[in-house]
Design brief:
Layout: H1 7-17, H2 20-40, E1 45-49, H3 55-68, E2 73-77, H4 85-92, E3 98-102, H5 104-112, E4 121-124, H6 139-145, E5 156-158, E6 161-162, H7 165-169, H8 179-182, E7 185-186, H9 189-203, E8 207-209, H10 216-228, E9 235-238, H11 245-253, E10 256-260, H12 268-273, H13 280-293, E11 296-297, E12 301-303, H14 310-320, E13 332-334, E14 337-338, H15 342-345, E15 354-357, H16 360-364, H17 370-376, E16 379-383, H18 392-408, E17 411-415, E18 419-424, E19 427-430, H19 435-443, E20 448-449, H20 450-457, H21 461-469, E21 473-476, E22 479-482, E23 485-486
Parallel strand pairs: 1-2, 2-3, 3-4, 5-8, 8-9, 9-10, 10-11, 12-13, 17-23
Antiparallel strand pairs: 6-7, 14-16, 15-16, 17-18, 18-19, 20-22, 21-22
Length: 491
Amino acid sequence: HGPPSDAALAAELERLVGPPAERERLRAALAEACLARVEAARAELVGFTTSLNQLLAALFLARAIKARAPAVRIVLGGSACAAPMGNALLAAYPDVDWVVSGWGEPALLALARGDEPPTRLIESHAPIELDAAPVPEFGPFLRDAGEFAEEARLLLTFEASRGCWWGMKHHCAFCGLNGVELAFTRKSSARVLREIRELFRAHRRGLFATDTILAIEHLRHVIPELAADADGPRLFFEVKANLTEADVRALRRARVVGIQPGIESLSTTLLALLKKGIDGIRNVALLKWCREQGIAVAWNQLCAIPGETTADYASQLALMDRIPHLPPPDSVNPVHIDRYSPYFERYRDYGWERLEPLPEYRALHPTLDASALTDVAYHFRGLGGPSPEPYLAGFTAAVDEWRRRNRRGDGLFLDAEQGLYRNEGGTTARFELSAGLARVLELTHQVTPVARVVEQAGCHPRVIDKLVAAGVLLVEGARVVNLVVRRPRPE
């Protein structure tokens, strides 16, 4: 759109990505490189995904292509194109011939065959037969990507399912998957196994599942089969956080080295407000088991949650101080209000007076009026709702401290040689590991009713209270779990 007229925006752009002349040089170089590819292919049709905030790059290149070769047809798909966003894009950007709202495969295949759709907005909402899709051919991708990334860092993506089986039943309050994207469908277990094995045999690289959530069927059948293979790829999955310890062990045996479990919070109250369908003590247990099994956990702490109180964060501060040895969150983020989420659809019910697109959209689409800008936007902010200001700085600092202590090796550990011990700042303090304490730790390695521990360990309830005060146990309601990480990793 040319140089921004807003001085503050111009200064921010220069701080982030360099002076205007350098940005123009880079844009021109990008356009020429892409145009050369289009011309070399003698392309009649060019498709762009808009997922992962690539919309403006796609619009920029669409304009460059049309200026050089007006006969080339342009089609956009992806998360920025669902209704009403797709209609607004078509109205605002005439260089785009078609926009696909929904699944891209059948629409793109029809366009490639020369079919002329009746309207510029192509709605493609019919379920896809995922087993019928080909195994991706990554040879050309790897040749191109090698120019830009270190070879060792390149992972390949694969798709085992689409949608969210949890969201179909209980839509998380902040989740922006729309109805089409929520509908859960999966590949057969046999097909997933074949695809993973073929991709690893061909490329010998780690694989990253694009699934929103790991299918229960795949957890029960694909994961054990992969564990039985003598060799295989390192894997990453998004999962629901209600995994058992046996599930975590199975994932690690199958060479799953990273997961994104959607933990979001360690407060049961906040998790209920978010409609997550899990509680804080189960999230803590999952973090412990993943640390023991050497599985990296990607998660963020959410805040500014409608219905929250500062007490919900004070209780987490006390808990975080006791678990430096568990995987810390990557960051603290106020909740987004994304289109299609319950927060968006019923924002007044959650305490917001009105919604408006994030201010960045005005900079990205300066020619649009307020109505069109609202239709294009996916991310919104709510006015008049909860503010994290009273606690945000302290909470963020506590998460930073958690990460620092985690890197330093602080925390509570148990191994056969050293017994039960706590590291803190390079100093080690040891507990006397009596037979009674060992039995309590055995019974509380998983989330367990307090009454069962008292009965089976033959201990007085005051023992449980003392171990809670010592930071060894976490009690929530009538259940308990210990906070001890066993080392080395148990088989």
